[in-house]
Amino acid sequence: xxxxxxxxxxxKNCQILYERTQQATQEIGLSCQIEKITDMETIVGLGVLxxxxxxxxxALRLQGRVPTVEQLKEILA
Length: 77
Known about the structure:
By secondary structure, this protein is an alpha+beta fold. The protein is about 40% helix and about 25% strand. The chain has helices at about 10-30, 40-45, 70-75, and strands at about 1-5, 30-35, 55, 60-65.
């Protein structure tokens, strides 16, 4: 099972990314655990310079923007 982390302080864009990530994983049938990380020390420790960000299985895949559901499907596939 994959681990997907949505990182951000809890702003509107962070929430949108979280919701779109949930939708994308459901649409592609990805079995994963989605975590919402808001602790700034943890976020910085993962090398994130701009939020929102997306980490998949420990690899930073996206930061500083909110992709569409279709773009997320490509990132997660």
